[in-house]
């Protein structure tokens, strides 16, 4: 009898210990989940206040990205979060340039882009091999780099922003549209426009309409093209429509069939975007993408018009940090010297 009582006491003891353990775990788990919920509760509000801007910083032209960042930051009171994208061997240099210059006050993240995602998707033959650099395709992979934001701005590195970036961010995207671009047919008049030999502003300039695959798209060759150097993107729609997968599909088709090339339109990253976004994009105010400043060293905009422009884009071969170039005085004023002394200006004003 005494033995049975002792066994019951032992069993009761273990039962109490087990119940206490279960109760502790429930209480502890509830506390942890509440803490995680409390930590996350402020995140959406904080993200709503941020304007994410994606810009690439390539090794040989890192000064371009820094000048663009400086111009954006200096012309707004908005809370900007810069996503500065680079390849692995440049990440420490990007961080050093920002942290050891006047840009040290900006809010930024350095993001690595893995070029292996492009394996087998790019044709090696190009009249302009610099356009085949991996970072030129970062715009295809925005959702893989930016995870927490609903709306994102992507900018090429050869731009200067003269307006408040908040205005560009507030661009309205129509229901079902994953991105907004500036139409090439909306370009304002240029002085010496006849000097823009070879400038393309229709699909004919980017797609090879001799190929059956292109004909089967049913897109008129006279359709206005757009320039993807300035993008306002809706990440939810981008992912929902699987835009990245669509772009990769057209990159692979080009490898197989040579549907377009940089020798035709000058932009190997533009052609697949023209196909995927045809008839399914919103438009950006033309003053937020004044481009072709790098097309010819002899082509100039009026000074008055340049003052009205919100964003200037030196797309083309003639970059404002190099020689020859035009309107580079507007770019020089935003240049941030390289703390490492590697990037140097070679334009006529330097």
UniProtKB/TrEMBL annotation:
**Entry-linked SUPFAM superfamilies:** Nucleotide-diphospho-sugar transferases (SSF53448)
Q: How does it sit in the membrane?
A: Single-pass type II membrane protein
Q: Which GO terms describe its cellular component?
A: Golgi apparatus; membrane
List the subcellular locations: Membrane
Keywords (A to Z) from UniProt:
Glycoprotein, Glycosyltransferase, Membrane, Signal-anchor, Transferase, Transmembrane, Transmembrane helix
Chief location category = membrane
Which GO molecular function annotation, any one, does this entry have?
UDP-glycosyltransferase activity
Entries under Gene3D superfamilies matching the protein: Spore Coat Polysaccharide Biosynthesis Protein SpsA, Chain A
Q: Name one Pfam family in it.
A: Glyco_transf_8
Q: Which family does it belong to?
A: Belongs to the glycosyltransferase 8 family.
Protein name stated in the entry? Glycosyltransferase 8 domain-containing protein 2
């Amino acid at each position: 009898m005494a033995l049975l009582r002792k066994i019951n006491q032992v069993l009761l003891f273990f039962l109490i210990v087990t119940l206490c353990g279960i109760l502790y775990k429930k209480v502890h788990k509830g506390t942890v989940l509440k803490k995680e919920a409390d930590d996350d509760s402020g995140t959406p509000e904080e993200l709503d206040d941020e304007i994410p801007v994606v810009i690439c910083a390539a090794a040989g032209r890192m000064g371009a990205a820094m000048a663009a960042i400086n111009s954006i930051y200096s012309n707004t009171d908005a809370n900007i979060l810069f996503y500065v994208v680079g390849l692995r061997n440049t990440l420490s240099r990007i961080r050093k340039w920002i942290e050891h210059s006047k840009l040290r006050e900006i809010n930024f993240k350095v993001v690595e882009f893995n070029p292996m995602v492009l394996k087998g998707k790019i044709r090696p033959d190009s009249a302009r091999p610099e356009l085949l650099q991996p970072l030129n395709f970062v715009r295809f992979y925005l959702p893989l780099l930016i995870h927490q934001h609903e709306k994102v701005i992507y900018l090429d590195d050869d731009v200067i922003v003269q307006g408040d970036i908040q205005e560009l961010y507030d661009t309205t995207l129509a229901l079902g549209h994953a991105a907004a671009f500036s139409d090439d047919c909306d370009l304002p008049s240029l002085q010496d426009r006849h000097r823009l030999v070879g400038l393309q502003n229709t699909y004919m300039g980017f797609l090879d309409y001799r190929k059956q695959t292109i004909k089967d798209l049913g897109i008129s060759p006279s359709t206005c093209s757009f320039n993807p150097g300035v993008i306002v993107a809706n990440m939810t729609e981008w992912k929902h429509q699987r835009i990245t997968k669509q772009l990769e599909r057209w990159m692979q088709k080009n490898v197989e069939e040579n549907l377009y090339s940089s020798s035709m339109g000058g932009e190997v990253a533009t052609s697949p975007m023209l196909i995927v976004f045809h008839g399914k994009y919103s438009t950006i105010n033309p003053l937020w993408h004044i481009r072709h400043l790098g097309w010819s060293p002899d082509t100039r905009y009026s000074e008055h018009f340049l003052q009205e422009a919100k964003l200037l884009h030196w797309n083309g071969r003639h970059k404002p940090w190099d020689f020859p170039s035009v309107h580079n005085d507007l770019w020089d004023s935003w240049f941030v010297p390289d703390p490492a002394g590697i990037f140097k200006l070679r334009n006529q004003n330097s």
